[in-house]
Design a protein that fits this description.
- The complex is a heterodimer of chains A (358) and B (557).
- Chain A is mainly alpha-helical.
- In chain A, 61% of the residues lie in helices and 6% in strands.
- In chain A, helix 5 runs parallel beside helix 8 and helix 8 packs antiparallel against helix 10.
- The longest helix of chain A has 37 residues.
- In chain B, strands 1, 2, 9, 10, 11, 12, 13, 14, 15, 16, 17, 18 and 19 form a 13-stranded mixed sheet that branches.
- Classes of the chains: A mainly alpha (358), B alpha+beta (557).
Amino acid sequence: MATDSATDFTLDSAAALAADEHGAIEGRSPWLLAWRRLRRNYVALAALALFIVIVVTCALAGPYAKHVAKTGPNVGHLGETFTRDGQQVQVVSKGGFVNGKFIAGGIPVGPQLWHAGGRYVFGADQQGRDVAVRLLYGGLNSLKIGIGSAIVCMVFALVLALLSGYYGGWVDWVISRVFDLIWAFPVLLLAIALGTALAINGFHHFGINIEGGSLWIPVIVISFVLIPYVARPLRGQILSLREKEFIEAAQAQGASPLRVMFAELLPNVASSFLVFFALMIANNILTESGLSFLGAGVQPPNPSWGTLIDDGSDRLVTAPWLTIIPGIAIVLTVLSLNIFGDGLRDALDPRAKVRIER
Amino acid sequence: MTKRSTIRSVGALALVSALAFLAGCGGGGGDKSSSDNTGGSSNGGKTYPVLRIVLDSPDYMDPQLYYTVEAYQWMSYVWTGLVGYTHKSGPEGGQLQPYLAEAMPKISADGKDYKFTLRQNLKYSNGKPVKASDFKYSIERAFKMDSPGVGFFGEIKGVGGSGGFAETKKGHISGIITNDSKRTIEIQLDQPRGDFLYILALEFAHIVPTGTPASDQSTHPIPSTGPYMLKSYTPNRGFELVRNPNFNGQIPTIPKGAPDRLVASIVSDPVASYQRVVQNKADFDFNQVPNDRLPEAQNKFGDQLRIYTNANTYYFALNNKIPPFNNIDARRAVNYGIDREAIISGIYGGLGRPTQNFLPPGYLQYKKINAYTFDLAKAKQLVQKSGTAGQSVDVYGPNSGLSKQVTEYLAGQLQKIGYKPKLRLLGDQVYFQTIGNQATKAQAMFTDWYQDYPHPLDWFDVLLNGNRITQTHNNNPGNVDVPAVNKEIEALKKEPNLNADINNRWAKVDHDLMVTHSTTVPYMNISGTNFFSSEMDMSCYSFHVVVYWDWGVSCKK
């Protein structure tokens, strides 16, 4: 739907397209049309660029840790010093009782930017770990979980929605009741419960062995609890599409159910699927951060943006950078994905109103 | 049995054994924020209208049930036992005095028979007389309620064994003989235990009227014998203490109390409770001042802040039974591989004192151990020498707060010295239960211990006596089991007095376990904070070895 908003744009009319192509109207695939709409949405493209920058930066965590900061993400430097402008500086300030007098300590060094030769660019945490290194590794973990869980969730949701929507009847009833069951739990509480239960001992059933500290645990937990939220709207679309003439035509030509589902129905929900996917990544990064903050996501000492905020929450007054920096990273990532997701939705299906709503 | 700090809940039950009454031995003391001065111990009998405190939730308000400092610090002036502590700061505070008993008991030569006589005309806060049989009822009530303290009474005759009261909870405990008309109480033990009087000073042995229901009465205040009575308690909201109208100085060995009223508000968030005191909306913050606010508290409110180190030890338990820490060089490596000063300075904000002893300072049996200097290279060498390098180690710890951080530190150091640590962080409520279960097979873990009463048995017998290792609820999660030391602990249990020779033997036990066998990795005696509003007169501040801040002798400006 066209609006006056600066971030929205108008639906291309045939006349406009014709004018654009010097009067010659040629057949255009829906994907090409979508791309044409998207490339004119500069805000969405800027958001995509920002997201790509974030991904690439996080992907460079290893080289940064090795060649710039020269320390690993989980290596503590309590009790150590580093050189800043030729002077020795405590990584974490010393405290304790000196001649009977108490001195409050434990304040980690703040952001050094480039004054310490690449070490502690964003400061240190209470264990004396380099926040910049942990931020990059944490981002990598958060992105892996966000993207991984979005893929797992979308694939399962799509398959279940196709089965449910195409077959209807008892298949639809069973799948819908399972969705109802999952939906009956508050999503975050269910995720916390599952995450906590699996965080320690892992998952060892049905021939699948996942260790407790594995990133697969939050991936599975997040994708499991969010499946109904994606599958329900897709199922609704498929139920509607199933009644269309082109489906009847395909069936009349002897197409198998699998062919109808994947060759006829799937392309028609692909745009919704893609929009959902972008928004799901943002949503899942937020969910992961929440779970990790509560101790039910990424397990220490592995970093994620959520665990970084948790680690810094005890030091809001004396070391605010510990929470502010990963917080900014989350905001930028989620914002970029949401803006790009909205742009993608507008480009793929300007009439659609796809939202992840809980 | 013990109080554990991080969760302030009950560990597994422990039966402590020894012979006869032991002279008090203090455990630590309070520190003024700017000096080691503990301040005065008396307020000169001054009173004031109301003391307003903020604290975390107490567990219960029933003497046979409560076991947290949140309750004990206040309720020690409400319900009382036959004996109790001297209300003085410093080591003197660890000495026992007759409370409801008119004198210290007569103890038989074999240390198995204690005879008390109650003071005359004792009354509960409801005006009813205190009877000798109430003591027996109170102990039996503890068993009927599955009190966390029943383990302490296991050696009273008729309690243990098949058909004993602990099992049947029917009839009466044969080892407690009372006579209401003569006000006498005789307690017979199966075997002597030197710390028994300390056990009688525990809250679980405090006296309640016969007929008090054998169920949690927290919200139905039980009549009390001390200078105060519980007026009301609303869980998660607060409680109020008022003066006991029938006290009339009936226990001359306990202070009469300074405030006429104590109003307690439950505020679990330490930042919120700190702010309440800063704004003078409360007079005392029970919660630890958050490390984040400590510099501010010290700089702006230094006169209102007191820092104390009570009798506690924080240590890493290493499982002596299974690889890699069934190897002494591997255990030594960990002792060399952790930087105690850095832990305290960095993680605890300086609130603690490094230690290599298991017994905390302040005990007469304490002899400072200085065997391990932080040396990563030496630690790595020892790991190589032990042949355990590269082995996987499951490191257990609580999943929140500073305990989590120190567990992460341990895992980090284990990695640095050559192991492959796997962190396993658990919720506070299940943590000690999990590591106390042999099936968990925890290899290295965070743990701590706070004294129940000032006696070395409460440390070595409960925590490191290999004869007391259990399959579940194991208080010795490191499975420390050194036969020669076990034998010495058993022998020391039977010693009636803590003279210089016995103290030296206890010190040797500490040295043997921590250095000769390097069984465990003690690293800190943690310090706590007492933070007061500007309305409190700090010249009356008194820190008690068991009660902590002795509010009964406090005063206001």
